[in-house]
Design brief:
- There is one protein chain.
- The protein has two helices and nine strands, in the order ααβββββββββ.
- The chain has 155 residues and is of the alpha+beta class.
- The protein has one domain: Sandwich (Immunoglobulin-like).
- Strands 1, 3, 5, 6, 8 and 9 form a six-stranded mixed sheet that branches. A three-stranded antiparallel sheet has the order 2-4-7, with no helix packed on it.
Length: 155
């Protein structure tokens, strides 16, 4: 712990001595359809993504975006030779395009993930499953949000 504190004091002192000014961008971060496409490309590379085998279950109309139930399941025998390696979920209008990524193995027995997410606006959600043979499968859903999450107005 003392080593960490010494390093911290050194870095703070160095920044103060150098007159360092850190400028952070101001304003809300926001993903876009283009940012979502780039995030998907970062996961799949140049591989083709085929619709099918993935089921994305979430309500089409959300009254409150603060807690949205989401279940992603993938048709797979979940054997050592043929299983889902990962499930990735993306959105196009939240602050970050990556919602989550979950790693799986044949030991999971089922390729299904259930959770709750926040949605800041009406948007498209995309789920992509990566299988052990290197293929990518997908499903998408459009969701209408009447009361967005993550929004605060200043007075």
């Amino acid at each position: 712990m003392a080593h960490w504190m010494d390093r911290r004091r050194f870095l703070v002192g160095t920044a103060a001595t150098a007159g360092a000014i850190v400028v952070l961008p101001f304003g809300p971060a926001s993903a876009t359809p283009e940012a979502m496409a780039e995030a998907i490309k970062n996961v799949v590379g140049d591989a083709a993504v085929t619709e099918g085998r993935v089921t994305l279950d979430l309500p089409p109309l959300i009254e409150n975006g603060n807690t949205v139930p989401l279940v992603v399941s993938v048709q797979s025998p979940m054997t050592v030779a043929d299983h889902v390696k990962a499930i990735h979920v993306f959105n196009e209008k939240n602050p970050q395009p990556n919602v989550f990524s979950a790693r799986l193995s044949a030991r999971n027995g089922r390729a299904a993930i259930g959770t709750r997410i926040k949605l800041g606006d009406s948007q498209k959600i995309v789920a992509i499953a990566e299988t052990s043979d290197g293929r990518f499968w997908s499903a998408s859903a459009d969701v209408i949000v009447t009361l967005a999450a993550c929004l605060e107005e200043s007075t």
